[in-house]
Structures are given as C-alpha cells and as structure tokens.
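User:
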Amino acid sequence: MMDQDLKKQLSQDQDGLLTYEYIANHIGHCDEIMDELVDNMILVDSTGQFVVSAARYLYAIDGKHYSDVISRLIATAIEKDRERRYLPDLITSIWGADYQSRAEELNATDDNFRRIYKRITPTENI
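Assistant: Predicted structure:
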C-alpha cells in the first residue's frame, strides 16, 4: 500500500509525468505498489502520453515481469490516444519494427495489438 507522503506527492500529478518519474526512479523498489501507481497515472493522463511511455519503459525493463501492468497501460493508451500520436511508437516498441509482417498472426492472438493496429491502419482489413 502506498504511504501517505507518496499519495500526497502524486496527488499533485496533473498529467502522469510525476508518476512516470517515480516509477522510473524507483524501478525494482516499487513493484508492491505498481498497481496503485498505474491507477494514478491512468486517472491523470488525459492524452495517453505517459501511459505509453510507462508501458514502453516497463516492457524494456522486463516485459514478462510487468506483463499485467503493461497490458493495462496499453489498453488505456488505446482509449486515451485519440489523435494517434503515441500508438505508432507503442506498437513498434512492444511488437517490434516488423509487426506489419506478422500482423495477421498478432491480430489473431493479441487483442491489444489488434485494437492498436486497427487504429493506426484503419484501411487495412484484418
């Protein structure tokens, strides 16, 4: 459970940056409160910028260990990034630069991939 001082500090977060910085600066030492940190970021990040950054960062650190959190962040990013500013970087960070060559396979096995792919390539039929 997050302590009161940290809750107070993160209550000042207006866009997700403070929460993202906390995760980045305390990685490996904040796993027990990661769900609360992600909840806070989801609450305050209206554009999806820091949600995407956190998903990319956690995937780069240890995608397997943080897979549940990453999945939540990706699902949220899909909803929040209405202008599709961050989704193209997210898709290559998570599924690789060659994702298009594997789009059919990934579409069939990963709902988050399918949803992002549909948004960034809306004319494609998959």
